[in-house]
Amino acid sequence: MFAELYLQSKELGVVMDERIYVHEKECQPYVDHELFPPELRTRRPLVLRCYVSDGVMVGGELVGERPIEEVIETLFENAEISYLHARTATVGCFIARIERVTENGNAAAI
Length: 110
Prior knowledge:
four-stranded antiparallel beta sheet
C-alpha cells in the first residue's frame, strides 16, 4: 500500500513523507457501512478530506462535535466525491479511507 501511494504522489508531483502502519496478522475489513468504527471515534479532532476518482483532493471538512456519519453523508451529496480520508486534524495522520456504498450495499474496492 505504501508503494502504491508513493507512486500516486510522484505522478501528481506531490512530496509524500507518510508512514502507513498495517496489522501484523491478516484482518477483515470493517463491514458496518452505517457506523464509523467506534475504536476510531476517540481520535479527535478529525478532518475528512474529499477526493475525486483520479486521487486529487478537492476539499475537506473539520468534523468537530457533529456525528461523523452526518458529515460523511453531507460530503457524499457531492456526486464528484469518490472517497474520503479520515485524518487527525492536528497533524494529518491517516486513520481510514471511506468509500461510497454501491447500490448492492458493498463498498467499492480499496
